[in-house]
Amino acid sequence: MAHEHKLEIFRGLLKFKSNTQKIWGVLVFLTIVTGVEVFLGITKPPLLTENSFLGMKILNWIFIILTLVKAYYIAWDFMHLRDEKNSLRRAIVWTPVFLVAYLAFILLVEGNYIYNVFKDGFVTWNF
Amino acid sequence: MDSTVTTGAEESVWGGGNRPLGASYGKLMMWFFLVSDALTFSGFLAAYGFSRFKFMETWPIADEVFTHVPFFHGNYPMYYVAFMTFILIMSSVTMVLAVDAGHRMKQNSVIWYLFLTIIGGAIFVGSQAWEWATFIKGDYGAVETKGGRILQFVKADSGDRASLADFAKTIPGERVAHEKNNGLWFYDEGYQPSYSLNEVKAGFQANTNILIRTETINAEGEKEVLSRQESLAKLQNATQVVEGANLIHNEYGSRLFADFFFFITGFHGFHVFSGVMINLIIFFNVVLGTYERRGHYEMVEKVGLYWHFVDLVWVFVFTFFYLV
Questions:
Q1: Where is it localised (chain A) (predicted)?
Q2: Could you tell me if B265 and B296 lie in one domain?
Q3: pLDDT tens digits, one per residue of B77-120
Q4: A85, A87, A107 member nearest B47 (Cβ)
Q5: Which residues of chain A make contact with B301, given a CB cutoff of 8 A?
Q6: Containing structural domain, residue B272
């Protein structure tokens, strides 16, 4: 394994002097993100729960985006994807991304369809 | 490049010995495994999403299900899960520090960081076991209707949840415990709830302060509470008392919620458990100096990849199970 590490995160906005320092920096960042998630999850600001975008509450969009941000930093800095070759990184990242996006799309649309069948159908389920 | 030109470099393209991805065999195989495992977890989470979309209006609210913190009484939604998440991220950090120390061939640092990683993993698995136990034991108790819906109870004056013990009557002496010497010795009595359905019904009729809360989520994102009249009518459909959760009955609401909870967090917990075991093996190898003699600590790095992956999966489970 190559021993050189890329020591900058946020597209070079934040540069670290050593790999150890970068690890602690990423930990601080991940902790802050988790803290924000928990804070939003407990307070549930009405502004974010009452408005929705593409059929989902803004709050849930924020959660999902923050999760992807966390996943990015775990994979890039803890799993050293940042230091791997582009080809390896792309193979690892895009394969699941495409497959999961496809699966989630199919299953969620289907789930929503069945929800409507239950709602408008003639079968009683709440008794 | 012209195809007719034959150079030495071109010959070695087909001659083997190339490392186009710049990673060792072991690391590539670990990545193969992790990508396929990621797809397995995605399958579970997507199935969870499917069921949730299917029962969008009646799905349990996670904040109301996971409200306990060990050694503390009261209602603390999410704090403990957030703590578990932090523990797992923290143990990921000690793992990556161990890998880093390994690159610099510092045996003692690797030992210490791996030790901390194992401790973090053990705390996490223990927390998960505790959370399972709390979930299985249940909170307030509920009744299940003929159609499999769950009816919970709230106090009309304060709006707080009411546990069965708060209002159920005790009707003495109506059942005899099954003993092995009477009847089939290999039959157990099975689990009996603390209160029978008749006791709950009688207590509900006597106590006018108790209302029924259905599974339905209203426009404000809260569970719908019935009026006293509706509650009395609804309770007639009840067929059994449910306390806690298992794969068949779930006092918190939709039984699929419990099924997915056990399945997904169980599968993840099993990964963490395996991770701790693998870390232990590596830990002893480091202590014995195996990698020092081998001249590199790549094994720590490979196990580290697995360990970070477990953390990565938890980040998603945390979001989709507890937050969204």
A1: Cell membrane
A2: yes
A3: 888 998 999 999 999 999 999 999 999 999 999 999 999 999 99
A4: A107
A5: 1, 80
A6: 23-138+257-323
